[in-house]
Specification:
- This protein is α+β, with helices and mostly antiparallel strands and 261 residues long.
- It folds into 2 domains: 126 residues, no CATH class; 128 residues, Heat Shock Protein 90 (2-Layer Sandwich), CATH 3.30.565.
- It has 7 helices and 5 strands; from the N terminus they run ααααβαββααββ.
- A 5-stranded mixed sheet has the order 1-2-3-5-4, with helices on one face.
- A hairpin with a 5-residue loop joins strand 4 and strand 5.
- Helix 1 packs antiparallel against helix 2 and helix 1 crosses helix 7.
């Protein structure tokens, strides 16, 4: 009788141990499976993010190539044709009298304005001074064009001795500044904007501030590609971009990068 009870007790004990081991095995399998699933999800998210960043980089590069082509066409074809028309009008102006003379003079003035606008568009798309002289002169030239329109007054300054970056990096920085400038005009209703470039050894810091109406950075960050586009351009230059803005208190942006050349 005692032996039978011992056998039953042993069976219950072994059964309990077996169930506990099975439960433990299932628990650890579940944890392992969840961990693998999480790792897989993180990997998929990483791949998706890399794909999105690659698409954005390719889009930006395509935009730059198209801008380069349009700028070249404006400068070489449209600008040249307008210059020829202007010369012909000048000949008519010298040979004509009365109303025709006045009309020719007005047309010549109009053509001067058109040529100026074509040059402005061409320089905004791809400023010649950027490749020839560098980042600081190109930004100064862009600011001078904007100041002529009386939409926004821009101050440009620098500290330290200027040095050259890789042309693609300089172009990426120029586009960031240009986009911040456009935002100040189109969205911020700013009347004043300051751009300061600080060159120190192999580093460059670009600070852009406006006195516009500002915005909620968190809310704006979750909508559209404007800020992501700026960040992507900064990354293309090998730099980091930090934005600060408060409603009613303007916007400031700091772009920092190191020259590895």
């Amino acid at each position: 009788m005692g032996s039978g009870n011992a056998d039953i007790t042993l069976v219950y004990f072994l059964g309990t141990v077996g169930m506990m081991m099975l439960a433990g095995g299932l628990f650890f399998f579940f944890i392992f499976y969840q961990k693998r699933l999480l790792q897989k999800q993180l990997e998929l998210n990483r791949v998706k993010q890399n794909q999105q960043e690659e698409i954005l980089r390719n889009t930006i590069q395509a935009q730059e190539n198209e801008r380069r082509r349009i700028a070249q066409d404006l400068h070489d074809e449209v600008g040249a044709m307008l210059s020829v028309v202007k010369l012909n009008v000048g000949r008519i102006e010298r040979q004509s009298v009365d109303k025709t003379h006045v009309l020719a003079g007005e047309t010549k003035t109009y053509l001067d304005d058109v040529i100026t606008q074509v040059r402005r568009i061409s320089r905004a798309l791809l400023p010649p001074s950027l490749e020839k002289l560098g980042l600081y002169p190109a930004i100064g030239e862009l600011a001078s064009w904007v100041n002529k329109s009386d939409q926004l007054y821009i101050e440009v300054g620098k500290t330290g001795e200027s040095f050259r970056f890789d042309v693609k990096k300089e172009l990426a920085v120029f586009r960031v500044v240009q986009e911040l400038m456009n935002n100040a005009i189109k969205h911020a209703d700013a009347t004043h904007l300051s751009i300061h470039l600080r060159f120190t050894h192999n580093t460059l810091a670009v600070l852009v501030r406006d006195n516009g109406k500002g915005f909620d950075l968190k809310e704006r960050g979750n909508s559209g590609l404007g800020l992501k586009n700026l960040e992507s351009r900064a990354e293309m230059a090998g730099g980091k971009l930090k934005l600060k803005s408060r409603i009613g208190d303007g916007t400031s942006a700091l772009l920092y990068l190191r020259n590895h050349e």
